[in-house]
Structure formats: structure tokens, C-alpha cells
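Hi C.,

You asked whether I'd gotten around to modeling the 184-residue construct. I have! Everything is below, sequence then structure, no commentary in between.
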Amino acid sequence: PAPRGIPQVEVTFDIDANGILHVSAKDKASGKEQSIRITSSSGLNKDEIEKMKNQAKEHAAEDKKKKEAVEIKNQADNLVFQTKKQMEELKDKIPADLKVKLEEEVKKVEDALKTNDSAAIKNATEALSKVWNEASQKIYSQAGPTGQPEPNVNAQAQPEEQKSSEKKDDKDVQDASYEVVDDK
């Protein structure tokens, strides 16, 4: 399998004249393809459709809570993955005390994920984010500002050198006048 976030899958849906749905999915990297054909095995009458709509409305709040819980869990899982990945890539740049804090917070999020308690997962995720932000600030402050030249110790000496070199060049400079001539 491809690393997380990298796979590209092309999914196509095709409904033919008889109402049969053909769904196919193709992994662009490996070329593997799978498809399924969905046919209408039994028709629903209007009463059954209305009953299902009413049930969906009744359970909408419950479904919303489940959706939020799944999103929180997915965000936490993704944060753990990204944090571990970044810790591995930047292991030499993360201060030891923050590395220990990060590992503790990652463990707390992983433990919270096992409980399926959304509030605990959310709190652990926020704590991990806070520690990671602190670590990121330290890492980037160690790197220094980018795109700016290093401070020059000889900054005072440089203008004097330029002045002295300009004086030397003044002896060889000759003033000249010129006239523009058009060949037209």
C-alpha cells in the first residue's frame, strides 16, 4: 500500500438505461481496478420510503454526534501520524525536554483513541497540538531568520574600504563628452 495521503484512486459511476449502477475504482499508481454492479433487487413503495425518511430525521442528531466523534478521532489519528513523522525527520533539532513532552502527549492521544471518548480525545489532541507548536517555535527560532544575510562583523570597515578604493580609481577616470548621431 502507498503511504498515507499519497494514493490516487479514480472512481467512476455509470447508470445505464435500466437503472443499473456500475461503479469502478482504479488505483492510478498500481493500475489495479475493481468494479461492482448494483441492481435494483426490490422496489420500495411510497410508505416504506416515507418511513425511512422519518427514521432518518429522528436519528439526525444522533448521526451528527457520531459524525463529529469520527471526525475528532480521525483528526487525532492524523495528528499522531504527522507528529511522529515530523519528530523522526527533525529528531536532531527538537530539544530533549520537548521531545519527552511530545512522546508523552502522543501516548496520551493514542490511549484516548482506544477509549473512544470524544472529549478525552479532543483534550489530548489539543494538548499535543500545544506542545508541538512550542516545539516548532523552538526549532524555527534555532534555525534563525531565513532570507536575511548573516550580520557582518566588518560592517564599519567595509565603507572605508570602498571609499579608499574609489579614491584610487578616481585617478584613472577621464571625463568625456559625446554626441548622438542618427544614421537616418
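If it helps when you're writing up: The first strand starts at residue 9 and ends at 15.

Thanks,
B.
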